Model the fold of this input.
Amino acid sequence: MSLTAPRTISIPVAGSTLLEVDHLTVTFPTSSGPVEVVKDASFRVESGDTLGIVGESGSGKSMTSLAIMGLLPRGGTATGSIRLNGHELLGRSDREMRRVRGDKVAMVFQDPLSSLNPYYTVGLQIEEAYRAHNGGSRRDARRVTIEALERVRIADASRRVDHYPHQFSGGMRQRIMIAMALCLEPDLLIADEPTTALDVTVQAQILELLADLQRETGTGMIFITHDLAVVSQVAQDVLVMKDGEQVEAGTAEQVFSNPRAAYTRALLAALPRIDDPFDELKGTSR
Amino acid sequence: MTDAILTARHLTKQFTTRGDGAFIAGTSTFTAVDDVSFEVPRGRTLGIVGESGSGKSTTARIVAKLIDATSGTLEFDGVDVTQARGRALAAFRSNVQVVFQDPFSSLNPRHTVEKIITAPLDYQGISPAGGKRALVRELLERVGLNPDHAQRYPAQFSGGQAQRIGIARALAVSPKLVICDEAVSALDVSVQAKVINLLNSLQAELGLSYVFIAHDLAVVRQIADTVAVMSRGRIVEQGDRDAIFERPQHDYTKALLAAVPKIDPEWELRRARMLAEEGAGA
Amino acid sequence: MAITILRRLLAAVGVLLLISLFTFMIFFWLSPDPAVQICGKTCTPERIDQIRSQLGLDLPFWQQYWQFLSGIFTGRTYGEGAAAITCAAPCLGFSFQTNESVTDMIVARMPVSVTLAVGAAALWLLAGIGGGLLSAVKQGTGWDRAVMTTALAGISLPNYFVALLLQYLLVVQLRWLPFPQSVTFTEDPLLWFQSYLMPWLVLAFGYAAMYSRIVRTNVIDTLGQNFMRTAKAKGLDAPVVLRRHALRPSLTPVVTLFGMDFAGLLGGALITETVFGLNGVGKLTADSIAKNDQPVIMGVTLLAAALVVVANILVDVTYTYLDPRVRVKSA
Done:
């Protein structure tokens, strides 16, 4: 790893439990009484591994990630337990959660253009994340920022650092978001539909980049997506959600080769495939 | 030569961006669609795939005659419609309908489903034989919706249902060709599959032809008979669906196909066997 | 950038020429003959003709317009010989009712209008932005309702009504302020301030009401943007998130609005100046309209138009610097 940030980097031991979520329930008040958008979800994320959370719209997958970040929209409450490296996150004050956000748990969102502030250079937006947690001079922050941009393979980083978000392509913007998330060496990266808004060739590049960076840093990752094929490629463990409920959980291999839940089977059956092996397979297996 | 319902020859569309009169000087020309030719076989589906900026949506808009091409010709059912205006354009519109990507923003939220579906009839000045109400019921039934919901508003439907309303509206004037511009892209995968099945069965029943525009190659594979791959305004490769997907010739097509994420075939095979055994056991 | 600004300035000159032409046309055809006004009640047709030829009023339209236009740049002389009246450049016309050059009349009243505009602008920016921000951040609370109710009052109550109400309350009933008097700052700073306070407040109230509503909408819109979520996800402090990420996108559109409003006010606040008896450009306009003193009306009309045109250019230039999406072309 090329990063020479002025802080010790501890690469977590792979296989140690990073995040433990138990009986997580997220509730929103509505005019017709409280609505549970996440119901009794429990899962683990191991250091250096990726947990894929799959679901269609309204499945509660994004709310799960916002609950971990402590960033639920107004009115939302989370109950249960969310432990990061053994420390409980639920019930912490916003002030305490601010120290966790960005530094311990970072997030990459779906639409990179609207997720970056159009009024500031990308450099400033990465620098401020670094300085919010490490303090230090602008010069240090700028150096770390340029290094982070280089790590996500943005060419000519020392010049591009002073450019504005609209001057980058969609894929480049997502790289910038990833650089922003990783410049603080978080223990856990939550990627919420990070490639959904991107073209398929760009998606492939971003997925490869995320995998490479994860190998380098040993960061644990939660990868949220509606795309089963994507999740089958990036995740070791998979959680399938529907209407706020966790309908299936297991290793990727289990979930894709031997799904137990009828919903998972239906999803897999509905998935359009580019190389339709199913038609032929149905023939051979009968 | 197959019987083509629609033939596009050398379509080119250039957009000229003028300076804003204030701070951006001069004009620049951008070629969104560059010398594009294709045919839509009667009763079949032409899939147009491409990434953002490939010109596929501009092509869709030209074919639907929502915009005019800068040059090139468009022939529908043996008639040159490139310059169609007035009555000729109205006739074209009653034969060619469009289904758009976002079902909700393309349905007027203040109108009932019945009013939405019959709007194209009113524009065309057509009064159906059995009366509007009967036609709406028939169309709703055809697209798999409850005919009793004709007096509801779009907001009372889910995304997939709203897209079915969009399809029912397109079918109201009994078109020969339906242009689907990313028509299933905004839908969840299980809903998407149902809408694709619906489009396929409508084609079989009514003999419709489709131009199906999508960025998702897997979806195109499900529905298209012939495929055109677009990149930077040009068609880089076109041909029979299986040829394109199984024996792509152009490097761009190959790269595009390689980039599509796939589930490990080994897992797929095991699941297929497992499902087959369970099916046999039950 | 320099070239584009130059192009804008050239375009502005064109616009101003057109405005001057239209204004001149309106007064040329629609207003009563100034010669009759000058001549008075006991007047012979011969005398009127004499005045007309003296003032050049018998000349064709284009020649008169040309005289008016060149007068702005080179000054002009009305009449001949001993009775000649010279109007130095920039000559916006000459009022035969007051025997003053229009330019001099405007210049004499400008300080009052500028003082009024600057003071009111400071107040309304403070109250409008502050109120809007408070309302947006405390959306749905009592604060929000209080600010928005006040804003509604500010928008719906007519200026003169607020002015009279305020005068009655602060001067007559509570006696917190003396009767406004026209003193300069150097004569009596305290009295000067006290005299301007009410006009400032009255003028600022309406604008602040509008601005607070706009700022509130903008801030609420910005708070819902995805980049606000990103800022929070980085672990930034709430005040930093608000100050750095919400404020700038919310306030940039206000710049455009402010530039135009401020320029409009420099051209005179007709009602406020009249109600408070402030001798500014607005009151000059009102008085001239009452007296049908057409050279003056034309002069202030042109001035107001010029101010708006110039403000428009300044606002556009400022905006390019404030919004990088306009300033920097995409790659």
Q: What stands out?
A: The longest helix of chain C spans residues 102-137. The two ends of chain C are 18 Å apart (CA to CA). Chain C has two domains: 25-91, 104-327. The first strand of chain C starts at residue 76 and ends at 78.
